[in-house]
Amino acid sequence: MKRLLPLLLVLLAVLFVFLSRHNAAVVPPDESGAASTTEPSAEPPENAELQDIAAYYAAQVTDDYSLTLPDGTTLRLCAPYAPLADCTREYFFYSDSVTANDYLRHAREDYSLIVGTAYYSAERAEAIRQYWSDFGPSWSYTYEGKADEEFIDYLCTNVVGAKTDRGVAVGDGESAVLTAYPENLLYISNGTEVWSAGSGEDGDYNEPPIVFDYALAWRPYENNDCRDITFYIKDGRVVTIEVISPYELRYAYGFDNEESDRVIAEKRAALD
């Protein structure tokens, strides 16, 4: 027993260090839903420099990932969000991950238009967010900001006539999608599990699920750009268009690319 005592003391010391590290987690938001920050217990790394977040998003704005509504309003992924009169703030998702932003959701009352944004609060501007990994304290990037800023990272609409930059609109037949997007199309069966409107990252958004038979997704995936456009199709027509900048590549894990290629090829052949 005396021989085992030193070993037991060492094991207890290791356990104490482990628990002390992992109990210093991110401080949750308060009851009002306002975001809070962590309190660093160690010095940040030398490369934790401030980032101009507006410039970061501006460099990614392109018409390829946009939706134009029937009234002429055009919304683009990564562009600053200008509040829409008919959309109200629907949801706030507090992010305790390594990113420096939270997420907001704006929607029409009937959810015919949903706009998701990456939300950077003035409270977190010029603040280093600490999080804990298996190797101890780490830090996410920081950013410069003087006011609350929102950048569009999600668009979804079932408004007839709303269209993409290539002219495919809600209400068009599937042939319009196949013609306007002759490359990088994926066939998504109804049973495929994907992050989408009505599900949310944790399945807790209030939006109704999209009713569809199958979907066609345009995902060029160039230069590690994970953005995509998904056309949900019901009875041969586009019923919903979704434009998204996800945190990771969709339609990848467990997705049958060979089956998708076969179905797309058959659909294209049927157009000839």
Q: Count the strands? A: 14
Largest sheet: 8 strands, antiparallel
The backbone outline, from C-alpha atoms, is globular
The SSE order reads: HEHEEEEEEEEEHEEEEH
- Taken as a percent bin, the fraction of beta residues is 25-35%
Q: Structural class of the helix and strand makeup?
A: alpha+beta
Q: Helical segment tally?
A: 4
Which stretches are poorly predicted, pLDDT < 50 over at least 5 residues? 16-41, 195-203
Q: What strand line-up does the widest sheet have?
A: 4-5-6-10-14-13-12-11
Number of domains as seen in the coordinates: 2
The overall pLDDT average reads 76
Share of helix, binned = 10-25%
Q: What does the radius of gyration come to? A: 23 Å
Termini distance? Answer: 84 Å
Description:
It is a single chain. The chain is 17% helix and 27% strand. It is of the alpha+beta class and 272 residues long. The chain has two domains: 35-155, no CATH class; 156-271, no CATH class. It has an eight-stranded antiparallel sheet. Strands 1-9 form a two-stranded parallel sheet. The longest helix has 19 residues, at 4-22. Residues 16-41 and 195-203 have low confidence and may be disordered.
